[in-house]
Amino acid sequence: MQQLNVLQINASSRYDGSLTRAVSSQLTDILTDQNEVTVQQRDVATGLPFINEEWVNANFTDPSERNEVQKQVLSLSDQLINELKAADIVVMAVPIYNFGIPAALKAWIDLVARARETFRYTENGPVGLLENKKVYLVMASGGVPLESEVDFASQYLKFFMQFIGISDVTLVNANHYFEQPDSSEKLAALIAA
Fold it and tell me: What is the distance between the alpha carbons of residues 123 and 179, in angstroms, rounded to a whole number?
């Protein structure tokens, strides 16, 4: 068995009856059955702070020159980045709200997209620093077909993952797996592919 660190991120505002929460948990359970897994849970739906001027100024200050207040301002961001860096696999449960991602997940993205930490600038443009990771985007929508021209969420998330260096991204349509009799077998096949 392979030792893996899995980061499971839940962004659904619903706890009871959430398709993305149910399918992402099922997918994580399959990963746990197939490997030795340590799972880190991050529920962003409970709320994350939005970046503000104080955060931006602290982030743009050279790390060697940050004072204690600036380090404290960035401490949650550092924690979220460390969770992401430690993960071999990220299972992200994301409902589509109003054609996009939940605001709480956008707050997470803003907190982890940091130069020198998850990407760096080069003369040829930004380069992602988080390579050799796998992401499963477990997504659902009540009215927006996934990967349609009005699905701005999945394309945005795929682009963001590539921006920080993660190119191995699989979209999992939670609508196709929720409470299906053979969903575990289908998810296991998806993981094995």
Answer: 49
